[in-house]
Each structure stands twice: as structure tokens, then as C-alpha cells.
Protein 1
Amino acid sequence: MKRGAVFLDRDGVINAYVYNSEFGTVDSPAHPDDFVLLPGAARAIAELNQTGLPVIVVSNQPGIAKRKFNSALLAAMTEKMHVEARSAGGCLDAVYYCLHHPLSELPEYKVNCNCRKPSPGLLIQAAKELDLDLTKSYMVGDGVTDILAGDSAGTTTIFISARKCYICDELVRQNAKPTLIVTTLLEAVKDISSMERSIQVPRDHLVLSHCFNFMEGK
Ligand SMILES: [Mg+2]
Ligand SMILES: [Zn+2]
């Protein structure tokens, strides 16, 4: 019998976004020095490992395609993520990146791929390579595209929104319906653990979110 997995988005779930005060923008880290884990993220990964499910990062990283960093810097950031997870006793079983961008100036990255979320390609690839059952899996992310990708792949979806679901309207607009909405990765992990313990309980009974009702009411 195939097992499920927990798929984690990276930026905004495991590590913090980087605020650029010069341009007033928020972006993915482009250098290992700017790659900082969110509070509790390493501990959450370690707790997730306790469920016995593999923990797999699935992330759009178009920074190389946009010439913001090179593959060596991306590899160094990935290594830092592994090291920091391990420092709390956690383990990331696999990392899958989509490096493409449809508007890249670099021909090898200018691809209309099927792995850039909201497409489910990264999850499908991981399921093939690691022999996973996507219907027994979870996709955890802080973007609408994470929820859409998880949904297309057939996973349970958990939306992380630190600020009382400030993009709930956007979820509704794009018809993205997360199974659960939580505020942190740690909270998501607690919900996954309880769902795994009571897998025979209908999942509707496990909706614990503070703003799911708000969405349902729309
Ligand atoms: Mg994200
Ligand atoms: Zn791709």
C-alpha cells in the first residue's frame, strides 16, 4: 500500500520572505545570508517527522530564471534549510523546485512547464519517484497557488495565513478551497497529526480554522 506525504511550500512556510526597503518589495531570499527559518519551523518539521509521513518541499524558485541568483546560491540556501531543520531534530526527505519562468530571458528556463505551481507537476513527479499516494497526502502553503496545486493533485490542502487570512478574498476569487486554514506551520502540523491519528473520522469534522466559516459564508 502506498503511503502519503506532507508537501511543504518553502517561502513563507519554512523560511521568511525578505523585505527590500529600497524597493518596498517582499521577495524570496536570493542569498544564504538572507535565508532565515521562521520561528518554530524547524521544530514543526521535527514534529511532522513523528507522523511517519515523508516531508517534501515543493517550491517555485524562478530566481535563476530571473537572474536574481545562480544555482550555487540556490544550492547553498537549500543546504542551510537542511542544516537548520536538522538542528531541531527535523528532516526534510526531499526538495523539488520548479526553476522555470514563462518570461525568463534565459531560453533554458523560459518554459511553459507543468511543474510551476499552481500546476501540480512537482507533486506528481515526487509521487512517481517516491511511490506516494497523493490522496493520502497533504499540501501546506501560504499561497493560493499552493492550494490550487494540492487540489489538482488530489491532496488535503492546508493554507497558512499569519494575518487572519488577509487573502481569503483571493482564495474565493480563484475558487481555491483549502481543507483547513491555520496561522503557522506548527499549527498545521498539529492538525495533520490529529488527522493521521483519526484517519477514519470524516475530514469535515476536523475543520479547525478560524476563518473557514467566513469563507463558507461567501
Ligand atoms: Mg510561499
Ligand atoms: Zn517548472
Protein 2
Amino acid sequence: MPLHKGPDRPDDRPLSVNPFYGEANPVGDMAEAPPQHRLPNRPMSPSTAYQLVHDELMLDGNSRLNLATFVTTWMEPQAQVLMAECRDKNMIDKDEYPRTAELERRCVAMLADLWHAPDPSAAVGCSTTGSSEACMLAGMALKRRWSKRNTGGRPNLVMGVNVQVCWEKFCNFWEVEARLVPMEGERYHLDPQAAVELCDENTIGVVGILGSTFDGSYEPVADLCAALDAFQERTGLDIPVHVDGASGAMVAPFVDEDLAWDFRLPRVASINTSGHKYGLVYPGVGWALWRDREALPEELVFRVNYLGGDMPTFALNFSRPGAQVVAQYYSFLRLGREGYRAVQQASRDVATRLASDIEALGDFRLLTRGDQLPVFAFTTAPDVKAYDVFDVSRRLREHGWLVPAYTFPPNREDLSVLRVVCRNGFSEDLATLLLEDLKRLLPELRRQSHPLGRDAGQATAFHH
Ligand SMILES: Cc1ncc(COP(=O)(O)O)c(C=O)c1O
């Protein structure tokens, strides 16, 4: 969230109130328009308050057309009813809401099974507000494990420069050095050998991403583990891997079943995912799982009262809504493996087709094709000089499409791309409409004398 501050200048402008709710309402309660930056002095009727808030929100984008976000923007009405029924339940009150606690436990068990935990009853896990919190917890476990064998150095975490900002946060908040493998040439994510070269006795772990936020590609987790096996043989250092499966941990198990990226690899100590991304639940729910109790040091676990006994918990916050966890259980139950496979395959089909259709326009070069995460990144072809990806993003916005353009990190800061995230609810038909709009824009874009420029801060500050 932005760190909000007050208005730059004293601003006493009140909200503007539709006369229907103000002076033209004979039974109205509105003596004065409410201020924007102070609590109003007097209450107002629920219908007036509703209308004021509702009207302001009209200017938000349409979430279904938001191709920037990985986060679920459509759920079935039945899921919405369940969420409404549970929005008053606090997830931490395990004793008061034992059935909600049980559904959370079942979700962890289902994920342990899905991710091939060698002994699902030994795996431990918890729900979180999203992958960011899950990554903080996983990073803390890695750091604590390292501190037990610490020889006095400063801890470091090795990962690709393409990691999501939550890992930079983790390193900053928990005072861990971030050792980042840069991008090189046409390689836009971590290289196992380059990662191993950054490891030493103070490396708390290596993060592998399934898949990368920048372009939707899967990082080679199995090769990373193999490289770390060889490193252990040479040096004796046993460095665990955490898989950030924010999106891919809910895609690969259904449409890439043979890909070994999870607890099948003995070096993988922990995995996170965002239930609210390809887990198909409205925001905010995530999951963090550890292979076994050894991977999650016992002293990090707190206990809350549960049916007269105590229940172990691992979380950054205390209170949290139960609705999303219930909705996750609903989705697991409702879809099962076959249902998830159908949904993720449909998204992948939309992504791969749209990527090929965009490539066929001739003006663009694909970096990825949507055949790993249903996500692809593309840039302008080398001979396109009249416009750039920022112009495309801006012009598509005029048609309601939110397609982000951003610059890549070191060593490919020269590369700017557009990225399309295909999610359930972004149908083949919607993809065709996007393509038609893009086609219609091209003649005008080609007629530009040069790219129209952009706000440099915005172009590089894209992190999700
Ligand atoms: C790879 C990766 N990790 C972590 C996150 C953070 O996830 P969340 O938004 O659930 O906190 C994201 C978000 O896009 C991501 O793509």
C-alpha cells in the first residue's frame, strides 16, 4: 500500500453531494456536505453514505479487464454467498469457529498431497493473507534454521533479480542480504549455476519462482536443486530451496503434472502459493507449507486456545477474515483436480492463442508464449520505431483494457515489455476483442513520428 499522508495543502473542499440527497430531499439529514479529510461532525443516512462511496468508486477500472493482475476477479455466486456468510468470522478464533479452523486444516492437507509431500501427515502449513506473508514466514524459517548453524556472518538469500518485491521486503525487514542473479541476454530468470556461485556458508536458502512475475516463465527448480546437490558434495554446505509458487503452484500440478518442482525434490523445504491467484479465490488468501517439522523451527510457532487445548499457529498478523479460507475450501471441493485442470488449461489456451495472434500482427516480438503460466510478455519488434510499449499500454487503456508496460531489471534495463495475465473469466471471446482493439490501434500508432514518452517513475515501478 502507498504510505499515505495528508493533503499537500490544507484542503477544506467538501464532498459534492447530489441535491437528491441534500437540499432536494425534504426528509434529508444532510445539513452540510461532508469534508474529505476529516471525520464529518454528524452522521448521515446509510443510503446517502452508500451513494457517495459508490459514486466515487465508479472511476476505478473494471477488474475483469485488468490484465495486469494475477488476482482472481471472478467467482461463482455460491462462493460469494459463502464469503458473505463468513465475513464476520475471525480466522484466529479457532476455539469459537472450530469448523472454519477444520476447513483450513483440510486445505493444508490437500495442498501437501497435491505438492507431493513425502509424508503428508508430517507436512505443516498455514493460511496467510497472500503470498507476501507466506514468503515472509518461509524466509523467517530459513533464517532461523541458518542461525542455528551460524558461524557469525551476515545471512544472505540467493534469488533471481526477477523476484517479486515481497522478497526485497523480506530481506529489508529481516536484515538479510539479497543476492540477486541478474538477467542475461535472452535469459529472464534465475540460472542455477549463477545462483550457486553466489552461495556460501551464510546463505539461508535459494528461492526458485514458479513462475516469474515478469514474464510468466517457470524457473528451473529441479536443475537448481541438482546444482545445489553438486555444491553440497563439493563444499559440505546443505542449502535449502524455497519455491515461490505464488501463481504456478496452482497451475503446474494440473497442467504440467510431470514437471518435478515441488516436495518430490528432497531439497525443497517449503512452498508458498496465493490462493487468490490461480487458487481461484478473491483476495486475500495465501498458503505456506513446509516439508516437515524440521523445516519449520518449533520456536517460531505460537499457540492459541482451541477446544480446551492449544493449536499451533504461524502468522504475522493476528485477526484475519475467515471468508477467504472458506472460499478456498469451496473451490477445492467444487472443482477437484479435474475442475482445476479444465480451468487452468482453458486459461493457458487463451494465453497461447492470444500470444500467437499478437505475434502474427508483425509489430511485436514475444518473450514468452503463455505456455507455462497463462501469462506472456512481449515487446515491439526491432524495426518498430514510431511507438513503444508505453504508447500501446496507454492507447489500450482508452478501450478499457489494463495492460501494463514496464522496464526489466538488471542487466536488461534496455528492455521494456507489455504483459498479459490470462485468468479464469478472461475468455477466448474477450481475448478476441482485445486483439481487435489492438489491431484497430496499430495504423494510428504506426503514423506517430516517434514514441510519445512516458513517466519514467511509473514505467519502472511495476511490481506485481
Ligand atoms: C512470484 C510472486 N511471489 C509473490 C507475490 C506476492 O503475492 P501476494 O500478492 O499474494 O502477496 C507475487 C505477486 O504477484 C508473485 O508473482
